[in-house]
C-alpha cells in the first residue's frame, strides 16, 4: 500500500497554504474538527484555548499572530506577531457576542479560506464561551467591582499562602493596612459618586506605588491592604512615603482634603493570619492617634 502524504502548496500571490489534494482534505476535515473539539474541552484558560486552536488553524491559513478581544480584555498566543494586517471575525452564539477573533496575516483571505475558518470557529465558540463564563465568575469572586483590585476573599487566600511559604521556606513578608482620612465627610457632603471617584483615585495611587511582586486589596469602604514580598521595614517605609506623596499630589484628593493613614508589620514563621493582621491594625491605630496622614510600624 502506498504511503499517503498530505502536501501543501503556497499560493504565492496570497501567502496561503492549501491542501495539495482538496478531496483528501475534505475527507479528513470532520476528523480534524472532532480532534480539535476534544482538545479544546481540556482547558478553561483562554490563552491555552487560543494556542490549541492556532495549531489547527495554521493548517488552513498562514498567520503570524492570533488574538481574541472580549469584555474581559485581550488574549493572544505566545510570540504573536501583530505587525501584519488584521482580519477580524465576530464570534457569536445565539445573539450573544463573545468577542472578536483576529488573525494577523501578510496576505488577504480568500472566500475559500474564510469558509474553512468558519468551520473551525463553529468548534471554538462553545469551549470559548465556557472559558469566558468561568473567568467572569472567577473575577466576580476575587475582584472588587468598583476598583478592580483584589477583594477580601482573595486577600485571605493570598495571606494564607504567604504564611505557609514563610513557614516552609523562611521567606518573610509584610502586611500594610491603609484607610482614608476624612473620607466619611466626602460621602456625607458630596455624595457617593464623588466618594467612588476618590476610592478609584486612591486605588490608582496604590497600584503606582508598589512593585510587581506586591499585591493590593480593597476590603470595602475605604479600607485597603498591601502584601509586600520583602522582609525589611525600609521597604514598607519607602512604599508608605510614596503613597502619601502621591496622595498629596493628586488634585482630586487635595480638592476634598483626603489623606491616608498607614500601619504595617513584618510576618514571621510563628504567625497565624489573625496575629499578623492584628499587629498591622495596631500600627494603623497608632497612625490615627498620631494625627493621621502618617505611617506607623508595629
List the helices and strands and how they pair.
Layout: E1 8-11, E2 16-19, H1 22-40, H2 46-57, E3 65-70, E4 73-76, E5 86-93, E6 96-104, H3 111-142, H4 152-169, E7 174-181, H5 183-190, H6 192-209, E8 215-220, E9 223-228, H7 233-249, H8 251-255, E10 259-266, H9 273-289, E11 295-297
Parallel strand pairs: 10-11
Antiparallel strand pairs: 1-2, 3-4, 3-6, 5-6, 7-9, 7-10, 8-9
Helix pairs in contact: 1-2, 1-3, 2-3, 5-6, 6-7
Termini gap: 81 Å
Number of strands: 11
Query: Mind summarizing the main beta sheet?
Result: 5 strands, mixed
The named CATH superfamily of the largest domain: Reverse transcriptase/Diguanylate cyclase domain
Q: In percent, how much strand structure appears in the residues?
A: 15-25%
Task: Using the CA coordinates, give the radius of gyration.
Answer: 26 Å
Find the CATH topology of the largest domain.
Alpha-Beta Plaits
Write up what this structure looks like.
This protein has 298 residues and is of the alpha+beta class. The protein has two domains: 8-142, 2-Layer Sandwich (Beta-Lactamase); 152-297, Alpha-Beta Plaits (2-Layer Sandwich), CATH 3.30.70. The protein contains nine helices and eleven strands. Strands 8-9-7-10-11 form a five-stranded mixed sheet, with helices on both faces. The longest helix has 32 residues, at 111-142. The protein is elongated and about 75 Å long. The protein starts with 7 loop residues before the first strand and ends with a strand.
